[in-house]
Design brief:
The complex is a heterotrimer of chains A (347), B (323) and C (310).
Chain A lengths: L4 H4 L8 E12 L2 E13 L4 E5 L6 H8 L7 E8 L2 E2 L5 H7 L4 E4 L13 H12 L5 H14 L5 H5 L8 H13 L5 E5 L7 H18 L2 E6 L2 H7 L2 E6 L2 E7 H6 L4 H9 L46 E5 L2 E4 L22
Parallel strand pairs in A: 3-8, 3-9, 6-7, 7-8
Antiparallel strand pairs in A: 1-2, 1-4, 4-5, 9-10, 10-12, 11-12
Chain B lengths: L1 H31 L15 H11 L5 H13 L13 H36 L4 H15 L2 H15 L18 H38 L2 H8 L4 H20 L3 H15 L5 H10 L3 H29 L1 H5 L1
Helix pairs in contact in B: 1-12, 4-5, 4-7, 4-10, 4-12, 5-7, 6-7, 6-10, 7-9, 7-10, 8-9, 9-12, 10-11, 10-12, 11-12
Chain C lengths: L1 E16 L4 E17 L3 E6 L5 H9 L6 E6 L2 E2 L8 H5 L1 E4 L13 H12 L4 H14 L16 H13 L5 E5 L7 H18 L2 E6 L2 H7 L2 E6 L2 E7 H6 L4 H8 L9 H22 L9 E3 L5 E3 L5
The chains are: A alpha/beta (347), B mainly alpha (323), C alpha/beta (310).
């Protein structure tokens, strides 16, 4: 059996991270609206969980919730990290976890770095915060090692440089060095390559993969790029309008996508032999106008018989480890066959 | 570092045309004023031929560019002309006043920042709270209150009614210069005018710092700092405060301009013998050579202030250092 | 028939330095680029950030000063600004990258789309309104939206308003500078489909500037790969994606994420090999300044920047 439990997505007895019924709400006017709505998922050690969705799907809000980095959001539910609910932790206890046991790689490496601090000090700060006892000299040695590890040439020179003196790819390496400084068990990467060129993207993804292998960390990779997910993830969760609509191991998701949204998304990126791209009707509604009753994707596929949807759509396990929300997937079809070339074409 | 020096040298070179322009304007202003250097020196009853002869001797009939060069070289040597009122060289009239004004400005600046930094930080950090509203209200009142009215109130309350501070002069009479009492008295005389000025002038800095902090607070790198596990106090001290104070530091030099305007009123109200007071008195008495000298010194101070601001900025902001 | 011919185009930007801000050197943003656009085709210009692809597009439409070279549009030399007649200008339009900042937020859709019409055609208010409504319908927006403001639209809709403005004068050539890179995947699809549709309908020629190889492959007939201001390879879609010859192109193509998770290990391995080849053969493909050589013809359609033999 080549497909191990890990790949099949069956949660091993003690997941590194277990999220139960997590909701994150933002205040608009005088009301709270859920940007993340009742999400449950798990991440194991040594596993990459990809979270895919377009803007407004709630994927970034979910990441920030796990790190508890939201300033003014209402968060409900359980976040069990190594079996312990971190929602109940005090801020000072949370600070001991952040940057040490769980760390984050951000999307835009220019704005994610302090413009007035040499990059060496910015990496060193993470070490200082969690290992206050090591000497200044040793800390610098460690930073130089990290710079070398993330593939920065001439670490001694770059140590003193400011973010604006580095290229986008170099800056993202610095952001990664900050995140991995204390070998975190959980690494959350929020669109880590969106701002980068394709060859740099390949290098950065390679780096994240290598680091994961070395540290045996669990990784949550958030992206809108299906290609990135296909290359990186062991399991994939697809988010739409704050909910997980499909979750499966990566091979099942790409070879047997079920939810209409997943299938639409896969057909809207150019593929071999596809003459026309599929266009999802309508737009993702703003947070205040999200439909909260019934299938949230219903309005985007009006040609599907309304009775195909569940009244209260739930995640159904259709195969071991492969979950799909709502029942509408059973009757879903593309109205225009040209738009459905299949993701691998016919070759 | 090399780039920084290049920037500073270039910036200093730019000040020369500014200074020349200032001097030309002043020279033209002086020419436009009634009378000339002779008017104050000579008995008005002296016959016109004698005056004309004296004018010729003093070079007052030379073409304007020769007189301009004479005038500028005089200034460089410290010769600012004769005061009509004091019947002595302007340089002597001005020297003590400059020193007094310098100390008053310095103490005012210290007060300004002592008030602005904590208030701006608190207001920015806890924005949209009761504390922030209180501080913002103070800044609005500060903006709305003219400095001369506020200074009058301060003199009236703390000088006359409560008697806590002296109400005029820069030092108690009869003290021996150089003694400890002398300096303490000088400082004591400074306090109330400096505080009056600072309380009003600081409000713009408070607001500026507040909005800088609110702005920096929302930057992505602050989230990075939190994600590293930095405590709130560290996030504020190490990241937000440092990055917000930078534009304030750069503003420092320009603060001199505000100080000069403020001092003109405040020195008058506190009868404090500084440049501002001298300026008002000389204008009222039409002591033009002194007015001219004061304007020249004010102008130089402002140009140097701007220079200082840019240099400070180039030192503290690595992004400018490169350009 | 060739609609646009670019010959040895160079766009240099001066670098100022020293105390007196003298020009000490030039940034060679575009450094000797030649290509021909056939009418009705889509020509892709691909490169990473800083490769000069956007500057090339801006120079062609007249937003950058040409340092050297020649641009011939519809048979007329338009290298000099003065040579750009009104008639030629209206036949060439541009679509910009960011649909959020390229539309004036204070203007209504009617005024945005009608702006080129007002410059070139003297229509009555009523005719103008009808034309704008036609255009909006053509880009798939409701004709009632003419009185709305840009912020009332989504990103994809805004980009379509930008396109409506660009096609208002029925141009022959559209320069599209990263037209979909700021958009979500599903919205990208909408804009790309639409660009293909109006191309057929209006017989448009596109110069499609993009860093996204997947989209370029989907859209373009011919492709040029740009690096440091020069073309490293030029050819049909098949030439570039199936028979890449230049090491830079190979590396770029290898970096495209593999959409089939079953093949990913193979892809990583392939990428490693290409990377090794890139490191080993770098000096064979680039001159001592790290720039590409002159293009050499290796087939009727396929040109590669290789050192001259001998």
């Amino acid at each position: 059996m080549q497909t191990s439990n890990r790949v099949r997505g069956i949660s091993v007895e003690n997941p590194l991270l277990q999220i139960n019924h997590l909701s994150t709400s933002f205040r608009i006017g005088d009301q709270y609206y859920r940007a993340v709505d009742d999400v449950s998922l798990s991440v194991n050690k040594n596993e990459v969980l990809g979270i895919v969705g377009e803007s407004g799907s709630g994927k970034s809000a979910l990441a920030y919730s796990i790190m508890r980095l939201h300033n003014r959001a209402k968060i409900e539910g359980e976040i069990l990290f190594r079996g312990k609910d971190i929602m109940t932790l005090k801020n000072s206890e949370m600070n001991k976890l952040r940057g040490n046991d769980m760390a984050m790689i951000f999307q835009d490496p220019l704005t994610a770095l302090n413009p007035l601090m040499p990059v060496g000090n910015q990496i060193g700060e993470t070490l200082l915060l969690h290992q206050p006892n090591i000497s200044k000299h040793e800390r610098k040695e460690r930073v130089l090692e990290l710079l070398h590890l993330v593939g920065i040439p001439r670490p001694n020179y770059v140590y003193e440089q400011f973010p604006h003196e580095l290229s986008g790819g170099m800056r993202q390496r610095i952001v990664i060095a900050i995140a991995i400084a204390n070998k975190p068990e959980l690494l959350i990467a929020d669109e880590p390559t969106t701002a980068l060129d394709v060859t740099i993207q390949a290098q950065i993804l390679d780096l994240i993969r290598e680091l994961k292998e070395d540290m045996h960390s669990g990784v949550i990779l958030i992206t809108h790029d299906l290609g990135v997910v296909a290359e990186m993830a062991d399991r994939v969760a697809v988010m739409y309008a704050g909910e997980i609509v499909e979750i499966a191991d990566v091979v099942s998701l790409f070879e047997n996508p079920l939810h209409p949204y997943t299938r639409s998304l896969l057909n809207s990126v150019p593929a071999e032999g596809q003459d026309r791209l599929h266009v999802i009707q309508g737009i993702v509604p703003a947070l205040q106008y999200l439909p909260r009753e019934g299938c949230r994707f219903r309005e985007r596929i009006p040609w599907i018989d309304p009775s195909a949807h569940e009244e209260h759509p739930e995640l159904h396990e259709v195969e071991p480890g492969h979950f799909v929300r709502c029942t509408c997937f059973k009757q879903f079809y593309f109205p225009d066959k040209r738009e459905e070339a299949g993701i691998y074409g016919n070759s | 570092m090399k780039f920084m020096w290049k920037f500073i040298v270039r910036r200093i070179i730019i000040t020369f045309p500014q200074l020349i322009l200032l001097s030309v304007l002043l020279f033209l202003m002086a020419q436009a004023m009634p009378g000339d250097a002779l008017t104050g020196l000579i008995d008005p009853n002296v016959p016109e031929e004698v005056k004309e002869q004296r004018r010729e001797e003093l070079g007052l009939n030379d073409p304007w560019h020769v007189r301009y060069v004479d005038w500028v070289s005089g200034i460089v040597k410290g010769d600012l002309g004769q005061s009509f009122r004091f019947k002595m060289p302007v340089t002597e009239v001005v020297t003590d006043r400059v020193i007094n004004s310098f100390w008053l400005s310095l103490v005012t600046l210290v007060f300004t920042y002592l008030i602005a930094v904590p208030l701006g930080m608190l207001s920015g950090r806890y924005n949209n709270t009761l504390l922030d509203s209180a501080i913002t209200t103070y800044t609005y009142i500060g903006f709305a209150t003219p400095i001369f009215i506020f200074a009058l109130v301060m003199v009236w309350v703390f000088g006359y009614n409560l008697g806590w501070f002296p109400t005029s002069g820069s030092v108690a009479p009869g003290l021996e210069p150089g003694t400890m009492e002398y300096y303490l008295s000088k400082f004591y005389h400074l306090l109330l005018p400096a505080l009056s000025m600072a309380l009003i002038q600081t409000v713009s800095t408070v607001q500026y710092l507040r909005s800088e902090i609110i702005d920096t607070k929302q930057k992505d790198f602050i989230i990075t700092a939190r994600a590293k596990g930095a405590s709130e106090s560290r996030v504020y001290n190490r990241h937000i405060f440092r990055n917000s104070i930078l534009p304030i530091a750069a503003f420092f030099g320009y603060e001199i301009t505000t100080l000069i305007t403020g001092s003109i009123f405040v020195e008058r109200i506190f009868a404090y013998p500084g440049m501002g007071q001298l300026f008002i008195e000389s204008v009222l008495l039409r002591d033009f050579s002194v007015v001219n000298a004061v304007v020249l010194l004010f102008g130089i101070a402002m140009i140097l202030g701007a220079l200082l601001s840019d240099i400070i900025l180039s030192i503290v902001d690595p992004r400018i250092r490169i350009k | 028939m060739a609609i646009l011919e670019v010959t040895n185009l160079k766009v240099y930007f001066p670098i100022k330095a020293g105390i007196f801000n003298r020009t000490v050197d030039y940034v060679r943003a575009v450094d000797g680029v030649s290509f021909v656009l056939e009418e009705g085709k889509t020509y892709g210009l691909v490169g990473e950030s800083g490769s000069g692809k956007t500057t090339t597009g801006r120079a062609i439409i007249g937003l950058e000063k040409v340092t050297e070279g020649k641009i011939v549009f519809q048979g007329k030399d338009i290298t000099k600004k003065r040579a750009r007649t009104r008639e030629l200008n209206r036949n060439m339009q541009m679509i910009f990258q960011d649909p959020y900042s390229s539309l004036n937020p204070k203007k209504r859709v009617l005024d945005i789309v009608a702006e080129p019409l007002r410059n070139y055609e003297h229509l009555s208010k009523k005719q103008e309104k009808m034309r704008v409504q036609e255009l909006l319908e053509l880009v798939g927006l409701s004709p009632e939206s003419i009185l709305k403001y840009p912020h009332e639209f989504s990103g994809g809709q805004r980009q379509r308003i930008g396109i409506a403005r660009a096609i208002a004068l029925k141009p022959k050539l559209i320069i599209a500078d990263e037209p979909v890179s700021a958009l979500d995947v599903s919205v990208q699809a909408q804009v790309l489909n639409f660009m293909k549709d109006i191309q057929k309908e209006l017989g448009l020629t596109y110069l499609f500037i993009s860093h996204d190889l997947g989209i370029v492959k989907h859209m373009c007939d011919e492709i040029a790969i740009m690096y440091k201001g020069r073309h490293v390879e030029q050819g049909t879609k098949e030439d570039i994606f199936e028979r890449p010859q230049h090491i830079y192109t190979k590396r770029l193509v290898a970096a495209i994420p593999e959409i089939n998770p079953r093949h990913r290990e193979k892809q990583f391995q392939f990428r490693k090999e290409v990377e090794k080849e890139y490191d080993a053969a770098y000096d064979d493909y680039f001159n001592k300044d790290g720039l590409a050589y002159q293009l050499q013809k290796i087939s009727d359609t396929h040109l590669v920047a290789l050192p001259e033999k001998g």
